[in-house]
Design a protein that fits this description.
The chain is built from 12 helices and 8 strands. By secondary structure, the chain is an alpha/beta fold. The chain is globular. The N and C termini lie far apart (about 50 Å). The model is unreliable at about 1-10 (pLDDT under 50).
Amino acid sequence: MKYIGLHFNLFPLRGVIGYLVTPFRVEGTPDLGRLTDLVNHLIEQGVHGIAPLGSTGESAYLSRKEWADVARTTVEATGQRVPVIVGASALTTADTVDMCRTAEDLGADAVMVLPISYWKLTDDEIFQHYHAISDAIDIPIMAYNNPATAGVDMSPELLWRMVRDIENVTMVKESSGDIQRMHALHLLSNGKLPFFNGCNPLALEAFAAGAHGWCTAAPNLIGKEVANLWNAVESNDFRKARDLFLKQLPVLSFILSGGLPATVKAGLALMGKPSGVPRLPLHPLGEDDARTLAHLLSNLSS
């Protein structure tokens, strides 16, 4: 089945999408058994979807076989309890198409595509990139805007154009850190475009701007608190949501500033869920920062 951009009811995802780390063994290979445990951990924390192979999952540092192994294991471990949105991004359109086809074949419910480029891309080049991916698969595509990591910045106008005009592009993850982008997406689409917040410190503002949910690695460490925040938003209790968000904000900001793979893996180790260290050239969290994270997590739970 093709998903037409404006037929959002075909994939009505809302809520918290939890981002997985890719755990590594001591010798540096992905630990797929531990990955299964982490999937179960996220579901127990109340997430509404799971997303492997994003920035948190160190997808840029995995071989294609490792990427496929992580995608396959995540889909199997999730067991259709919540949707799985697999990150699938490469420099070339052909490679991205191949990854998205693989994700679909492995049972992914959707793919999240971040445009990556050595050369600056025009809007038409980005549009055709997503169009080619859409033509190759039959599952929904989340267009992911994160100029800080990809070097490509998609305007609200371009994102709305793609959702409106390209089959299968049905939702947006906006991670630029600019809340005005989310207001623009809401206004351009007359509230019809499902967009998700991808910047932890903007969560509360994003919900007020009409975000359908929150793509975040935070549920790995503070899942119940994140779930409570979302439930308050869904109940239209923004006073409670504000109080919950402000309580979480020091942890949310630290996770982002410390580097997602390093901080989340350090936090999981503190929780008795060791997942190895990030793959070089990334470094693990330093001892001082690890102590700061432990202090922040302890304060939040007290």
